[in-house]
Amino acid sequence: MALRPLKGIAALALCVATVAPAMVTPAMAGLCAPEKLLRIETTNMSPGIQKDSFAAMPKVLYRLGSRKARLEEQLDPAENIHMLFVMNAPRSWIVDLVSKKAQLVFDPDPTPDIHVPIFNDNKVPAEIVDVEFGCEAAFIAHPATGHEASKAANGSATKHFIRSGPWRLTLVTLEGSSTPRMALLLKDEKVVNAIRYGAYQELADVPEGLFDPPAGIEIKEPPAPK
Predict the structure, then answer these.
(1) pTM
(2) Which CATH superfamily is domain 10-220 in?
(3) Which one of 27, 35, 93, 120 is CB 3.0 to 4.6 Å from 130, fit for a cystine?
(4) Please, are residues 183 and 169 in contact by the beta-carbon 8 Å criterion?
């Protein structure tokens, strides 16, 4: 079993592990490994999230290939922390930009591929957890994905979805665009989680140091293996 050093970081949890599902799902059609650098900005719009809270602040995810990711959070004034998560497998750094300290985590798995589920919760079926940021297009195009036309405030929209028991994952795109605008997780037809995409960009160049810890950070090494 591979390490999961960043499990549970909101809806953008970065996991260094291969989920072992019980069935073939859209996300399992192939390893999620974007060929070009993606920049994805999201906001948690889930029920119960206060609009002025830290949980509702935008987050930025960068993803490239199957082993590189970077998650940038905003400053949390209540906790006085500013978290940055950098993954360049097999190494990951959990960084606090306020204290300028970081924890290095090493994944000993021989194939330390990164998984970035849109919805990551131990209550959610594996086939839904398997749907990842960065591979939304593959999910939408998969023959197991259903599609429903609907109306939106700024034009027509399409809902792309899968079901698993009482659960349903839906990605929403607008007419003329394949870029997701919303991700919804429903249980018994009630929305329990909602993620709004503020930006979804494919970048031509990879900025130097993007998948390395920032300069000037004190890094705590992992304990030596026994």
Answers:
(1) 0.86
(2) Lipoprotein localisation LolA/LolB/LppX (2.50.20.10)
(3) 27
(4) yes
